[in-house]
């Protein structure tokens, strides 16, 4: 049986035999001097480290180190030397006590250089007050990993957060654009970064097409269509710009004809009718290439080539009513004759022509132009225009 001279002798015996938990409990129970708590705690942590029970040691640090800034800093650097600092980071205090900046920076760098802890880095950067450390050393540790396999999405987001802390907002914006963060538009407005988005149009469109187009329109003086490197998104931008101001993007109307033809053909004809800033010949070639017939008719009409336009309506669209409407709008008597002649190439249209030109042409004039021997289907329609006496 052991006889201890006093409580401290008992605690020393417990430590000597490796019963650190019991020694700690004895000190906490008031046995021995208060100063013993630091010694017992330190020896307990040393024991756990020797046993490689790093997570358990880290978890006990708040209890054993309490408000001693110097003790915290000593153990932070000890964990760092052992390459085990990431397990201690969740327990490091940010106040009461507040440590030196270096301690926090070393902890963040330890998280940044191990892909397994990138999520912890992001969470820590978001939770720790920015005033307790300098972001620059952590940024310097992460930047060399850009464009390497170790640059995870989470690490990229953490770097973006650090750039914000360091007031490097344009660098943050570039990373948020790569990450396609939904709140990027609010970030742009908050930090007035509108002049920095010209090379990020595609990413912004992919995040939220409607908000991106609205942003581009609002700041069209800063961002020109030529700075949009995606044809589809350029089409969306120019279309919206045209709706707001038909003249704002006039230098790009030739390109816009091509974009409408490619992405939204039904909107091309309204555009052709509204704009005066595209080259007719170029527009016509595009419409021919894509077999856009009504658009060809409109352009030929503007070019003054009404006969060719009429031929397309009759021979390709095969729409006699549209042909009559087209000729009526041209106010050209020779074009009426051309219409009649071209209808004779499709005799089935003659009856429809007679029916729809009442008030514009004398039916007898049409009949007199019919070539000898031409067979006209539905001849009885002619009788409606020439009733027997």
TrEMBL record:
InterPro entries: Clathrin_H-chain/VPS_repeat, TPR-like_helical_dom_sf, Vps41/Vps8. Gene3D superfamilies: Tetratricopeptide repeat domain. GO terms for biological process: protein targeting to vacuole; vesicle-mediated transport. SMART domains: CLH. The keyword Hydrolase does not apply. Keywords: Protein transport, Transport. The keyword Repeat does not apply. CHCR repeats lie at residues 204-352. It comes from the Eukaryota. PANTHER family: VACUOLAR PROTEIN SORTING VPS41, VACUOLAR PROTEIN SORTING-ASSOCIATED PROTEIN 41 HOMOLOG. This is Vacuolar protein sorting-associated protein 41 homolog. It comes from Nelumbo nucifera (Sacred lotus). The lineage of its organism: Eukaryota, Viridiplantae, Streptophyta, Embryophyta, Tracheophyta.
């Amino acid at each position: 049986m052991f006889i201890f001279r006093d409580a401290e002798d008992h605690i020393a015996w417990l430590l000597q035999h490796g019963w650190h938990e019991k020694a700690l409990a004895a000190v906490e129970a008031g046995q021995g001097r208060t100063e013993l708590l630091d010694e017992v705690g330190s020896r307990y942590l040393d024991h756990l480290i020797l046993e490689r029970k790093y997570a358990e040691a880290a978890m006990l640090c708040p209890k054993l180190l309490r408000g001693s800034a110097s003790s915290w800093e000593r153990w932070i650097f000890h964990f760092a030397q052992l390459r085990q600092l990431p397990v201690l980071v969740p327990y490091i205090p940010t106040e009461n006590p507040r440590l030196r900046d270096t301690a926090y920076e070393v902890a963040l760098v330890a998280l940044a250089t191990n892909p397994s802890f990138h999520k912890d880095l992001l969470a820590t950067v978001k939770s720790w007050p920015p005033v307790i450390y300098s972001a620059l050393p952590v940024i310097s540790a992460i930047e060399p990993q850009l464009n390497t396999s170790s640059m995870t999405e989470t690490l990229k987001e953490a770097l973006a957060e650090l750039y914000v802390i360091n007031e490097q907002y344009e660098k943050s914006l570039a990373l948020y654009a790569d990450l396609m963060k939904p709140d990027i538009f609010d970030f742009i407005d908050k930090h007035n970064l509108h002049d920095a988005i010209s090379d990020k149009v595609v990413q912004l469109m992919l995040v939220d097409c409607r908000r991106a187009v609205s942003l581009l329109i609002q700041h069209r003086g800063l961002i020109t269509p030529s700075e949009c490197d995606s044809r589809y998104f350029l089409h969306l931008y120019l279309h919206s710009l045209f709706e707001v101001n038909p003249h704002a993007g006039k230098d790009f109307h030739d390109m816009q004809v091509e974009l409408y033809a490619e992405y939204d053909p039904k909107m091309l004809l309204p555009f052709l009718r509204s704009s005066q800033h595209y080259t007719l010949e170029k527009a016509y070639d595009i419409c021919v290439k894509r077999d856009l017939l009504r658009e060809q008719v409109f352009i030929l009409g503007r070019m003054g080539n009404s006969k060719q336009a009429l031929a397309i309506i009759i021979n390709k669209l095969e729409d006699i009513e549209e042909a009559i409407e087209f000729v009526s709008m041209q106010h050209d008597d020779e074009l009426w004759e051309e219409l009649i002649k071209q209808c004779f190439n499709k005799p089935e249209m003659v009856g429809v022509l007679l029916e729809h030109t009442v008030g514009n042409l004398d039916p007898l004039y049409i009949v007199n132009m019919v070539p000898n021997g031409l067979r006209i289907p539905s001849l009885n329609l002619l009788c409606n225009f020439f009733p027997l006496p």
